[in-house]
Amino acid sequence: MDSHSPDDLSENGDNHNHHHHLPKKPKRSTLISPSELRSEFSHHDPNIARINNGSFGSCPASIISAQQQWQLKFLRQPDEFYFNHLRNAILQSRTLIKNLVNADDVDEISIVDNATTAAAIVLQQIGWGFSEGRYAKGDAVVMLHYAYGAVKKSIEAYVSRQGGYVIEVQLPFPVNSNEQIIIEFRKALERGKENGRKVRLAVIDHITSMPCVIIPVKELVQICREESVDQVFVDAAHAIGCISVDMQEIGADFYTSNLHKWFFCPPSAAFLYCRKTSKFPDLHHPVVSHEYGNGLAIESAWIGTRDYSSQLVVPSVFDFIDRFEGGIEGISKRNHDAVVEMGEMLAKAWRTHLGSPPDMCASMIMVGLPANLEIRAESDALKLRAYLRDKFGTEVPIYFRPPKEGEIDCITGYARISHQVYNTVDDYCKFRDAINQLTRDGFTCALLPN
Prior knowledge:
It is a single chain. A 7-stranded mixed β-sheet has the order 2-8-7-6-5-3-4, sandwiched between helices. It contains 15 helices and 12 strands. By secondary structure, the chain is of the alpha/beta class. It has helices at 34-40, 53-56, 61-76, 78-101, 115-131, 149-158, 178-192, 217-226, 247-250, 296-301, 309-312, 314-321, 327-350, 378-392, 425-440, and strands at residues 49-50, 109-112, 140-144, 165-169, 199-205, 231-235, 254-258, 270-274, 364-368, 394-395, 398-400, 413-418.
């Protein structure tokens, strides 16, 4: 049993780790071996080239085992588990996350289901600002055009319905520099402040999902401060495990990242950082239970009877990560280097290009697909993705980029490839060969059934 199993808790649920700074555990003496690594992910379908870690993440076998231990501990004696273990175990997970992201206080860290839930928490209180008259009808919320679809829907549900004015930052793609993003962001803020409006919230991705690009969040947050934007929320669903995350350096009011995408937790778990300040109204979990009013972290730690095990395995995940050279920083660097290498290999094979410079990607990168595939709509991208899965055993999302006015025979389809520790070069060669076969055969998306 690993050093963070549920049975490590003493009978009264106290593991003597209530302090906000947990002592660092010694590193394992041996690093994970190639055979151990393969074993950790042997439950993956061996017939699929799984180069889409960005969508759902991946959970090692040892973490699945730790999760099952927590589940059984609850099922053996639910009352004892609830009263003596659950809250303290979640506190331990929150404390580890607090240290990882360099937050000031553990009370700034809540664990929620996913980044979509975190967005609902932040946007809910913005909606209350409009409905309670603290914000004027027509005051603005600014978000990126490439914001995640569920976040856009949450803005529609919580902000637009209450009279908020939503402005989308139009970002170029392919993108060549941070300056392009900064220029468009400044334009959007200027629009938000027209006619005496105030910008009440800026929603900024740290790594956009589709297309995937690292956004210069520190620079954009600083611009928001200079332009008197009330609140800044960074949606960083892909960040933890991909890039360095430091709350002091980023300076946002709210920041969320999934723990199940790139940090090896089972689905689903995420953290929401809320900077301690008296400036903002109370934040509440949208699922109201009897902990309502006890602070967001406590509210989020109990939203009714459910399986909390994905939140409780965080200490075991830290143990797993310690088995890799350089820890999470080493993992993310190797993933970045590998995905760039594989992206460049594919682009060369197809005579296309990458969607951004390598330094603007993390563990995912956009690769142009041959124009003669004739990807002419989002429906084509979805059908091609399904065809690659069903016929070639390759799982990869496809992005449709509408041609600009005057463009002829341009690249309209991009594949978003991911790299995680379980991937091998063969996964990407399988994808390369599938596309090459389609182009040799004269395939176009028009041949796919509706």
